[in-house]
Amino acid sequence: xxxxxxxxxxxxxxxxxxxxxxxxxxxxxxxxxxxxxxGEMELKFAKWNNGKQGEVKSVADANAAAATExxxxxx
Amino acid sequence: MNSLRIARTALRVRPxxxxxxxxxxxxxxAVSDKIKLSLALPHQSIYKSQDVVQVNIPAExxxxxxxxxxxxxxxxxxxxxVEVIEESGGSKQFFLSGGFAIVQPxxxxxxxxxxxxxxxxxxxxxxxxxxxxxQKIASGSGSEQDIAEAKIEIEVLESLQSxxx
Lengths: 75, 165
Prior knowledge:
Chain A is built from four helices and two strands. Chain A is an alpha+beta fold. Chain A has two domains: 40 residues, no CATH class; 33 residues, no CATH class. Chain A has a two-stranded antiparallel sheet. The two termini of chain A are 19 Å apart. Chain B is α+β, with helices and mostly antiparallel strands. Chain B has two domains: 86 residues, F0F1 ATP synthase delta/epsilon subunit, N-terminal (ATP Synthase, domain 1); 42 residues. Helix content of chain B is 35%, strand content 36%. In chain B, strands 1, 2, 3, 4, 5, 6, 7, 8 and 9 form a nine-stranded mixed β-sheet that branches. The longest helix of chain B has 22 residues. The interface between A and B is medium-sized, with 30 and 31 residues. Chain B: It is found in: Mitochondrion inner membrane. Chain B: Its main location: mitochondrion. Chain B: Belongs to the ATPase epsilon chain family. Chain B: It holds the Pfam family ATPD_C_fung.
């Protein structure tokens, strides 16, 4: 089966998270506020080199950048 | 030679084994016509191995109804409506954001999804406003990734809109 999201370089994980995000945003306001908190991710990482901590980056931002780069390679 | 001997003993044993269940049929031997449903989200389990009559799921390969003694299979789910017909005869409807349904050999069905809510929890106004927003992005000149994401959103929202009507 050919999926449109696959053709544009998205992973299944990304597809699921986008679908879940839009479902959460479609809820009635009281439930939506509680549910949207589940979609937040504040994980950070840093690369250590020669015993020194490098720049601290957000995992979400780094993933998005990697995805756009991967998409530009495939197309 | 050895296998032949086993086959012969098996033949000898069988008549007695067949006779017993034919003569009397107890309650314990009656096959259950219920399917054990587990509907789990990462943060909540809606059904925990509960006996239900039938579950209708939106598989990528098409809509399917799962009853007891279904053929074991793994189905990827589209974002859509899951209908559970309970023992009491009533049915409950949940909108799932997509995941997997696994039919196990012993009349067990496990459905896993990221988000799933009862239909009455959705607001049609929120769906409509998001749909028009997503359509704008999909037909706009954003990055390829933004357009792909908007198309996913449209797929989900259109499915949601059609079941909310």
